[in-house]
Amino acid sequence: TSADRTFRPPATRMTVTSPSAQIGTPTYSLVVPVFNEEVVLPVLLHRLDQLLAKLDGPAEVIIVDDGSTDMTGIVAAGRAKDDPRYRYLALSRNFGHQVAITAGMERAAGAAVVVMDADLQDPPEVVLELAAKWREGYEIVYARRLSREGESRFKRWTAGLFYRLIRALTAIDIPADVGDFRLVDRKALDAFLAMPERDRFVRGMFSWMGFRQTAVPFHRLSRTLGQTKYGWSKMLRLAFDGIVGFSDIPLRFALWAGTGVSLFALAYGFYIAVRALYDPALVSGWASIVVLVSFLAGMNLLMTGIVGLYVGRIHTEVKKRPLYVVGRAVGFPEDEQDATS
Ligand code: UDP
Ligand code: MG
Fold it and tell me: Does ipTM top 0.85?
C-alpha cells in the first residue's frame, strides 16, 4: 500500500562489522517463505551464501516466517541480526504460502525479486539463470519444472489435471508446470503489489499482468530434508483459489446445466404423457422419480456450492482485513530499532 518504497541506507550502526553491510539498494531480493523448516534451514543458509557470492550484484535475502512453531524463527532471526544481507520477517501466525510470498515481496528493496521455496526443491543455482534472462530484458522469468523427482504419481497426476483444468477454464495463459519459483522485475512487482485481492494465487496474478515473460527449465529435486508443508487441505485451497480467482465459467456452468436438465425433464414429461394415453393402468415409475429427484437435489447443492465459493470470496474482500499481520521484523534497514530488540 505504501507508495514510498525508496530504500533508505542503514543509519550508522555501531556494531556493523561485515564489509557488505552498506550494500545500499540491492540488485536482487530473494524472498524465501518458511514454515517449520528447522531441518532444512542451516543447509539452505549455506546454499544461499554460495549463491549470493556468485550473483552479479548485491543481494538481500528476506526469510518470511509463516508462523513456524519450531526453531526456524530463532535460527533465521539470528542470521538476520548477524549478517546484514539477511532479513527476517515473522508473520504473527500461519497465513499460508501465498500470503507469505506477498509479505516478503512487499518488503523487498531489490531491482529484481526472486521467490523460491526453502526446501531446496528449487535449486538456488537456477537463480543465476533467472538473473541472466532478466539481464537480457525479460521482466518476468519463471522456472519451469521439466521433471518432478520424488513426488508420488498421484501428486503428479493431480497437479497435471489441475494445470489442464485451469488452462481450460481461464482466458489468461497460466503456464503449465510452473510454481512460484520465479524472478520478477521491479515494474512487474509494483503491478503485483497494486493487486489488492485477498485470496491470492500468485502464479496466476503474474500471468495475468503480461509483460515480457520467459521460462527457464529446471529439474525439480525431491525434498530431502523435512516434510512437505502442503497438506491436502492447503493444496485444495490453492486449486480453488486459482480457479475461482481467474474464471467465472463455473458460475455460468449453472446456467448450462440447469438448461440441460430442464430440457430433459420437459422431454421426459412429454413421453410420460403420451404413454399414459395408451396405457391407462400405468402407475409404476417410482424408480425414475427417485432418480430424478435425487439428481435434481444433487444439482441444486452443487450449484449452491459453486455460487458459495464466489460469495465467500466477496465476503473476504468486503471485510477489507489486512492480508497478514507482522509479528516481528529483524534486519530491515528501514526499521533499524528492531535489530537490537
Ligand atoms: N510454506 C509456507 N507456509 C505454508 C506452507 C508452506 O510458507 O503454510 C513454505 C514452505 O516452508 C516451503 C514452501 O512454502 O518453503 C513450499 O512448501 P512445501 O515444500 O511444503 O510444498 P511442496 O513442495 O510439497 O508443494
Ligand atoms: Mg517443497
Answer: yes
